[in-house]
Design goal:
Structural class: alpha+beta
Shape: elongated
Number of strands: 11
Largest sheet: 5 strands, antiparallel
Order of helices and strands: EEHHEEEHEEEHEEHHHHHHHEH
Helix content: 40-55%
Amino acid sequence: MQVSVENTGTLGRLMTVAIPADEVEQQIQTRLKHLAKNARLPGFRPGKAPLKIINAHYGDRVLQEVAGNLIENSLKEAFTQENLIPAGGPNVEPKSMARGKDLEFTVSFDVYPEIKKLDLKGVEIERSVCEITEEDIDRTLESMRRQRVTYKPVERAAQEGDQACIDFKGTIDGEPFAGGQAEDYRLVLGQGQFLEGFEQEILAARAGEQRTVSVTFPDDYHGESVAGKAVEFDISIKEVAEPELPQVNVEFVKSFGVEDGDPETFRREIADNLTRERDERVSRLTRSRVLDALIRENDLDVPAKLVEQEIDNMIAMNKSMLDQQGVPTGRFNPEREQYRNDASRRVAMGLILSEIVRQNDLKPDQNKVKGKVESMAASYDQPEAFVQWYHSSGERMQQIESAVLEEQVVELLLEDADAKDKPVSLQELTEQSST
């Protein structure tokens, strides 16, 4: 077997393999003789047809079979011989396939890039440090009270934060349009639920009053039939109600699952939840900064086939999410290019992390795996059942182990990096980890 390899790009390779004609013919003859033992051909008893006749009937088919087997087997041998590992499936093209001639085929593929920087020595990494304060607990508690807000009718004029019960009817050029009418619609003023100008017309209005407002739909409005058009709304204000927040009492506390109804117990639970959220956000933000630095330190060309495979995965995942949400996906046909940058980054990151894991012989720390599952379970009413459910699936546990292994890589990289702690508030941390 003769093998030659040429570069077609930074990562691209074209390998040509030639298998001697006599080796090909030897296998063809072996296969024909095996067929001859049981062949049933007109005019001959089973297994008695001459090899020449067998060759005439089955020669072409046998050539295809032998060539396929030789290509498959020699391909592995050629990669081993040339010390090459293809990134993604190689493309095989027969070049010469005829009796009496060498069997030649070409193989085009990408190789894995060389990863030169597997540590972050001397690289500055900012690490956010956040303390949970009483103000954070108060702010969270206030948000929970707003979740249980009720509204009490008032006689005064509407103001921001009030809930207005309204009837409205919209027309375009004097004609009603689909979705432009409603009765007994409850609108909380100041939340920007309607077009700009609509809510402002209700502010300062009282129950029983009428208002007319002219607004224009944005050009990029999701409803194409009304996008960019001017519309006139006739509005009837039927009721104005002001918000009433519940007191933090036994009943309120118990409604959030705190059995003893003690507000102090509730505050401790809020603090515990904020602490878990804080830890998760800090971990995620630190991980992102470390991995970003690792990408910057390694300006990699990534194998094209792996990028295409990752784009396929991302599209399939998005489609699956839409299916789960009940969104019709019959016409879901996104542009592949919109995924390319993220896919390239994911592939590059996967290659770098895999090499760090390999060179450091890292394995998932099972204590950390156990702790991660238990931490996830803590937010559920029956944590033990959640832990059992997670452990019942090899696929779910593999995902956890992969996440833990990545965390171990980040910890390893931080040991060498120039990590600098920066105190931040919980609000700042939330904003940082949301961008």
